[in-house]
């Protein structure tokens, strides 16, 4: 056929015609606008209304930001500069940034700052943000190098967890990071984190040797080493015996005698514990390396939110996994304990748990025990997050096909092995979006500590900053700043989670 | 064929407790139980010791003493001479008010934003995405505080409304936005009935049951609570039984009769026990539980419910007619008339009129005052939760495969009927469970009221009462019980719903 045509046709093109442009109104911006903005009468009206509001908002906000004042030293100063015009008073941020980020009383390292900038210490005036002879970046990176370095290292530490392509060796730093960050933020002798690290390392080695035979023996050994090194085993044992005696007496089976408590009788023996306290004391006396130590109540600002967020999320993950496994367990006692715990925590608002941390927890501890409010809050928020994470992971466990459990059993794996090697890796993968949601929610919820009068970012804004005579009335700038900080982090986390979800998609669940 | 039998197990050895899978689970559970009991009892003993040291017994008696503080937004009558119990009840009602208002508004916002986010209008879809992301990624506390500062710092004071040429004027001449709150018109009745003050009787007996010397609650109260729990359990069982055996016949009864049956089973025994115990032990009027029953409101409610029922009957009649003739008679005008006419007539009969707020002295009076703190909390919770609901709605709609829409279209259904009959019923199955857990979150987040001084139950019982009396454990315990009750009842409702809409497969 084609042959005959070739002879009959007068003209045959040998090259392809380049595609011609679509008609003017079928391409380009015009078509896009017609299809996406004005595809019908209702859509056109909606577009116009939306445009009207967007433009109104921009006209309102952009000049306000653009003519913002950055250098005044109080609200009245801002007003003087603005001379009646509308404009933001961002000076509050330049004046109080150190407070908003690190808390009112976090120490400012003048020695290091003067070392790095060459300005003598007595010339460094740093009272409420008014700087002489230094600039913001010098103050930020050198004056507050401890929390800033801890913050930067946080990204190094979580990088190998977030990106599986990075060298696995980096996980070593991830393991070290909590101790490093603790030392930077709280300061004190370097030997405390180092002995903690060595002790935990010992416990881990014992665990990994024993876990080859029996997972539970390994866990028990780990706990045993931790208790002997860092806690008071003698007091604990005798305290338990005393307690049992009291309990029996309280039930009326036996009259409790008034003789001395066992725990008191063995005070001398007990005083050698906790072991690591002595080691720290000894090492610090020989090689004193220490940073200025910071009391927990001096930690505040956005740093407090970051600390609560990261610590509680990382602690609540293992606890949440344990609770989820417990809830799926076929041992009724374990199962019901987990169910009651999870449902109880999920049923009450975080605020009531923070009240518990603030005013109630002390009643349930042995008389005379008293520990940091920040630690109590960490415990309660961790329990709170663990219950939610447990529910997410339970969903993941339930979504795994039964065959996976049966396959693990038929390989002859015991419970711990089948969970660690077969079930959890898959279940956790399914649960990632949910876990990230919980993490984002938890990070936002750390602002609630301002209600039990801890000075986190919100607490600082509402308390010291807005209540000061200089900045009384600068709501928008401060709250926009806080909202921006939280938005950047939370949005970043959720974008990461979506990326990870796409990456882990293996075609089937 | 030879059968191999397991060798007869040798007599029980102690090591089998750890090594034999048959016994190991018992060992673990036994150990876990012992540890748990030890842990719990050590907490309990510490509590007893600490309380004894401080010399404050664990008791709820403080609820009966005068609260001594004022509550600015109160749905029921309260003054500072009333008891802490009364203050807590006001707090509970305030919590419920903001929760209900918030849930309704959040649903409204969320559904609109969720649907519009799927709109093919690029600008609208992007705007909705910005709304959702901005509100989901910023703590709700910040939104509450921001709106609260708008309400208190940016709005004019009532004095700005004064004079011939006031700086601010009322919206539609009837709503005033001031920094003390928003004043809106409210319905009053010219020749309505007087309200009745109800003071519920409580037990006067002193028989008390003590739990480890910790609790002292009336024995009678215990009995009523236990009967109530049994009644609820029985109602659930009865519902299951009826569904199983007489499901079809029971469904023919009108809805309120069915509801009445369940309520009677659930509450009946408790009410009978309550009445018997009251007559046996003597009653005492408890002023803290007083409430005024508005007869006008009851009349309106009854009329409205009845007209709803009649409207429903009309619909049933229309559907029955459609079954026979194939044509669905148009009944919407009848149904609207049946609902509106009786209600309007009753309003007219009671002499209803709108009471407008007016500036008197330094402040507005008349109408209804909504404090800025309530508005801040309400709006912030609604907008924040709305963003989450929008995502749920979007996910629900996207979960319905395109094939469903196409199949419905090929059956000849019109687009709005496709939405109503095919897509929505399936999407709701996906949307409603997360929606209800969002309601739950909103209710729990309403405890942030304490940040703006709205007196919800956290602000009264967990705030001022706790600080004044120092009764931390009791107050936090009651607070937790309150929130747990709400959460658990909502999850109960959700389970029932999930079971009823669950795909019946295989």
Describe this entry's structure for a reader.
The complex is a heterodimer of chains A (509) and B (506). With 509 residues, chain A is mainly alpha-helical. Chain A is built from 23 helices and four strands. In chain A, the strands form two sheets. In chain A, strands 1-2 form a two-stranded antiparallel ribbon. A two-stranded antiparallel ribbon of chain A has the order 3-4. Chain A is globular and about 105 Å long. Chain A starts with a helix and ends in a 5-residue tail after the last helix. In chain B, the strands form six sheets. In chain B, strands 1-2-13 form a three-stranded antiparallel β-sheet. The interface between A and B is large, with 59 and 55 residues.
Contiguous helical run count of chain B: 14
- Overall number of strands of chain A: 4
Mean pLDDT of chain A: 83
Order of secondary-structure elements of chain B? HHHHHEEEEEEEHHEEHHEEEEHHHHH
Adjacency order of strands in the biggest sheet of chain A: 1-2
Output the structural class of chain A. Answer: mainly alpha
The geometry of chain A reads as globular
Strand content of chain A: under 5%
Low-pLDDT parts of chain A are none
- H and E string of chain A: HHHHHHEEHHHEHHHHHHEHHHHHHHH
Helix-strand makeup class of chain B: mainly alpha
What is the global morphology of chain B? globular
Largest sheet of chain B: 3 strands, antiparallel
Helical content band of chain B: 55-70%
Strand order of the largest sheet of chain B: 1-2-13
Residue-averaged pLDDT of chain B, rounded? 83
Distance between the terminal alpha carbons of chain B, to the nearest Å? 40 Å
Compute the number of helices of chain A: 23
Biggest chain contact: A-B, 59 and 55 residues
What's the number of extended β-strand segments of chain B? 13
């Amino acid at each position: 056929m084609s042959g005959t045509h070739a002879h009959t046709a007068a003209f045959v093109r040998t090259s392809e015609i380049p595609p011609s442009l679509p008609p003017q109104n079928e391409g380009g911006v015009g078509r896009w606008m017609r299809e996406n903005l004005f595809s019908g009468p209702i859509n056109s009206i909606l577009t116009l209304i939306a445009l009207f509001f967007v433009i109104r908002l921009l006209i309102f906000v952009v000049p306000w930001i653009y003519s913002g004042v950055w250098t005044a030293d109080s609200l009245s100063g801002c007003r003087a500069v603005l001379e009646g015009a509308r404009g933001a008073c961002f000076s509050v941020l330049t004046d109080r940034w150190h407070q908003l980020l690190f808390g009112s009383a976090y120490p400012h390292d003048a020695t290091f700052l003067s070392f790095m900038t060459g300005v003598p210490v007595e010339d460094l005036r740093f009272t409420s943000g008014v700087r002489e002879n230094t600039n913001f970046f010098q103050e930020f990176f050198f004056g507050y190098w401890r929390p800033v370095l801890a913050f930067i290292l946080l990204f190094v530490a979580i990088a190998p967890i977030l990106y599986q392509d990075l060298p696995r060796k980096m996980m070593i730093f991830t393991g070290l990071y909590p101790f490093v960050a603790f030392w930077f933020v709280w300061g004190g002798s370097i030997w405390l984190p180092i002995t903690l690290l060595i002790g935990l390392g010992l416990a881990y080695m014992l665990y990994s040797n024993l876990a080859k035979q029996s997972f539970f023996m390994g866990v028990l050994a780990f706990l045993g080493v931790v208790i002997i090194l860092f806690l008071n085993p003698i007091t604990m044992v005798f305290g338990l015996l005393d307690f049992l005696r009291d309990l029996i007496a309280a039930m009326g089976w036996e009259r409790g005698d008034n003789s001395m408590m066992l725990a008191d009788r063995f005070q001398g023996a007990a005083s050698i514990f906790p072991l690591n306290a002595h080691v720290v004391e000894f090492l610090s006396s020989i090689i004193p390396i220490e940073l200025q130590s910071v009391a927990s109540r001096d930690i505040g600002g956005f740093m407090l939110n970051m600390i609560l967020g990261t610590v509680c999320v990382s602690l609540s993950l293992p606890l949440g996994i344990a609770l989820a496994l417990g809830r799926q367990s076929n041992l009724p006692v374990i199962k019901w304990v987990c169910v009651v715990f999870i449902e109880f925590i999920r049923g009450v608002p975080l605020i009531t748990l923070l009240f518990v941390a603030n005013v109630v927890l002390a009643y349930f501890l042995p008389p005379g025990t008293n520990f940091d409010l920040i630690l109590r809050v960490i415990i309660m928020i961790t329990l709170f997050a663990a219950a939610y994470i447990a529910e997410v992971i339970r969903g993941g466990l339930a979504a795994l096909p039964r065959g996976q459990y049966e396959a693990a059993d038929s390989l002859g794996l015991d419970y711990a092995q089948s969970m660690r090697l077969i079930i959890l890796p898959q279940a956790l993968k399914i649960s990632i979006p949910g876990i990230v949601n919980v993490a984002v929610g938890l990070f936002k919820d750390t602002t609630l500590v301002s209600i039990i009068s801890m000075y986190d970012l919100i607490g600082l804004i509402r308390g010291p900053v807005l209540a000061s005579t200089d900045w009384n009335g600068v709501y928008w700038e401060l709250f926009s700043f806080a909202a921006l900080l939280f938005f950047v982090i939370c949005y970043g986390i959720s974008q990461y989670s979506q990326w990870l979800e796409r990456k882990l998609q293996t075609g089937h669940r | 064929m030879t059968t191999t039998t397991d060798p007869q197990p040798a007599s029980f050895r102690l090591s089998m407790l750890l090594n034999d899978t048959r016994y190991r689970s018992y060992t673990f559970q036994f150990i876990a139980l012992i540890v748990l009991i030890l842990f719990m009892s050590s907490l309990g003993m510490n509590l007893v010791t600490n309380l004894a040291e401080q010399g404050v017994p664990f008791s709820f008696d403080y609820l009966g003493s005068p609260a001594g503080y004022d509550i600015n937004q109160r749905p029921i009558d309260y003054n500072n001479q009333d008891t802490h119990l009364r203050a807590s009840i006001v707090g509970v009602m305030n919590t419920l008010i903001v929760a209900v208002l918030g849930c309704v508004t959040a649903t409204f916002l969320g559904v609109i934003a969720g649907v519009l986010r799927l709109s093919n209008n690029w600008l609208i879809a992007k705007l909705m995405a910005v709304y959702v992301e901005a509100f989901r990624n910023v703590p709700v506390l910040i939104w509450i505080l921001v709106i609260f500062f708008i309400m208190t710092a940016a709005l004019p004071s009532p004095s700005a409304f004064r004079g011939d040429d006031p700086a601010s004027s009322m919206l539609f001449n009837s709503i005033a936005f001031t920094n003390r709150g928003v004043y809106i018109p409210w319905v009053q009745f010219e020749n309505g009935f007087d309200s009745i003050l109800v003071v519920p009787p409580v037990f006067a007996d002193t028989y008390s049951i003590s739990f480890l010397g910790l609790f002292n609650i009336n024995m009678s109260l215990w009995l009523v609570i236990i009967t109530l729990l049994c009644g609820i359990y029985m109602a659930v069982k009865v519902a299951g039984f009826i569904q199983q055996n007489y499901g079809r016949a029971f469904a023919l009864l009108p809805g309120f009769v069915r509801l009445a049956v369940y309520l009677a089973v659930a509450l009946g025994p408790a009410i009978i026990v309550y009445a018997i115990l009251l007559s046996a032990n003597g009653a005492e009027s408890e002023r803290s539980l007083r409430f005024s029953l508005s007869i006008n409101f009851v009349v309106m409610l009854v009329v409205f419910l009845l007209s709803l029922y009649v409207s429903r009957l009309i619909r049933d009649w229309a559907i029955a007619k459609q079954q026979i003739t194939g044509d669905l008679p148009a009944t919407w005008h009848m149904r609207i008339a049946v609902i509106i006419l009786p209600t309007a007539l009753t309003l007219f009969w009671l002499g209803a009129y709108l009471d407008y707020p007016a500036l008197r002295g330094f402040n507005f009076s008349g109408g209804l005052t909504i404090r800025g703190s309530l508005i801040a909390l309400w709006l912030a919770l609604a907008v924040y939760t709305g963003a989450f609901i929008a995502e749920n709605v979007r996910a629900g709609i996207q979960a319905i495969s395109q094939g469903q829409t196409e199949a419905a279209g090929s059956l000849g259904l019109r687009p709005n009927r496709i939405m109503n009959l095919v897509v929505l019923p399936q999407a709701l199955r996906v949307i409603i469970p997360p929606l209800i857990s969002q309601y739950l979150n909103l209710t729990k987040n309403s405890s942030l009221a304490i940040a703006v001084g709205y007196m919800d139950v956290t602000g009264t019982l967990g705030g001022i009462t706790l600080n004044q009396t120092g009764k931390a454990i009791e107050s936090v315990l009651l607070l937790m019980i309150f929130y747990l009750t709400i959460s658990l009842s909502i999850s109960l409702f959700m389970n029932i719903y999930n079971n009823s809409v669950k795909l019946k497969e295989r």
